[in-house]
Design goal:
Blueprint (H helix, E strand, L loop, with lengths): L1 E4 L9 H9 L2 E4 L7 H6 L4 E4 L1 H4 L12 E2 L11 E3 L2 H4 L1 H14 L6 E11 L18 E6 L10 E5 L2 E5 L6 E5 L4 E3 L11 E12 L1
Parallel strand pairs: 1-9, 3-4
Antiparallel strand pairs: 2-10, 3-5, 5-6, 6-12, 7-10, 7-12, 8-9, 8-11
């Protein structure tokens, strides 16, 4: 299997340029959000769900120092700590963030249906080997990396034909990909809300121009 490092693209001319790029499987663009620090600070204040998959491994402690954790476990197929959909936290921020992403990609979208979450994934998750390689249900999925100084080898891997694409974890970088593609996180890091791997994870279920 060949490995290659994904390169970011700095300019999209129109809808068709963006869609053609997505036909190759994925898009990477740096400096996607005007104020990524807003979500870093938000993650310190809002509540997070802990998935049952994170807790069923006896050798793993589900503790993440400083997190505001909900009492009830959430039965889900992801590991770590995930917020409620941001539309239920602050709908204006949810909508404005999607529009900011669409504008940077020159996507003139009239309607969309999606979901957006903050997600902490600390280093103890490296001991959990389930559900790393997976695909998602919606049309498109995206990740924005939110650690100013991330650890090496903590980005995302995408299986594409006869090769694996390595998308490096770079602060305020967007990875947008066709969600049927097999993909996996590279690795996790951190022990508290100030240094654990943090992403803004989102899905696009449908859209039209």
């Amino acid at each position: 299997m060949k490995y290659e490092i994904a390169k970011s693209k700095s300019f999209f001319s129109n809808n068709f340029d963006t869609i053609n790029s997505l036909n190759t499987g994925y898009i990477v663009i740096d400096n996607i959000l005007d104020d990524p620090y807003f979500f870093i600070e938000s993650a310190k204040k809002i509540e997070f769900n802990l998935s049952h998959l994170t807790t069923i491994h006896n050798n793993v402690s589900p503790a993440l120092e400083g997190i505001n954790l909900k009492k009830d476990l959430l039965y889900a197929n992801w590991v770590g700590y995930r917020s409620d959909c941001y539309s239920s936290i602050d709908y204006n921020i949810y909508l404005n963030t999607y529009n900011e992403i669409f504008n940077k990609l020159e996507l003139k979208i009239k309607y969309f249906n999606g979901a957006m979450f903050l997600h902490f994934a600390p280093e103890f998750i490296n001991e959990i080997k389930e559900n790393w390689w997976h695909s998602d249900g919606p049309i498109l999925a995206g990740v924005i990396y939110l650690n100013v100084n991330p650890k090496l080898n903590s980005g995302t891997l995408i299986r594409l034909d006869d090769r694996i694409v390595i998308v490096e974890n770079i602060f305020n970088r967007l990875l947008l990909y066709r969600s049927e593609l097999q993909h996996s996180p590279q690795g996790f890091f951190g022990t508290n809300i100030n240094n654990a791997r943090l992403t803004l994870t989102f899905f696009i279920n449908s859209f039209n121009f």
